[in-house]
Specification:
alpha+beta; Alpha-Beta Plaits; two-stranded antiparallel ribbon; 6 strands; globular
Length: about 90
């Protein structure tokens, strides 16, 4: 992941604690959705998966994952971006 929003930008545009929306697009193989969800769950130390939804491309080769977990601060948002950004199969993260 080349660009992670700065703490200043996150704090100026979001209220913490609160929900934050992550959108991720990647290749379907190797349980991509499960790995994305696990990144967020592990970073937030959750016992259950955070709220998320998926949409597959027409051909089924790519998948979009939208997650909206509750985060405590901007640093936690950055940490999640970093974790997801390291995943193989990632195409876009915003």
């Amino acid at each position: 992941m080349d660009h992670i929003p700065s703490l200043e930008l996150l704090e100026a545009t979001h209220q913490f604690p609160g929900s934050y929306k992550f959108k991720v697009i990647g290749h379907v193989q190797d349980e991509f959705v499960e790995r994305v969800v696990a990144c967020v769950r592990d970073e937030l130390l959750l016992d259950v998966d955070p709220p998320y939804s998926t949409r597959h491309t027409t051909g089924g080769a790519k998948v979009s994952v939208t997650l909206e977990p509750t985060v405590v601060d901007a640093a936690q948002v950055q940490a999640i971006y970093r974790r997801i950004g390291e995943l193989t199969g990632l195409i876009v993260l915003w």
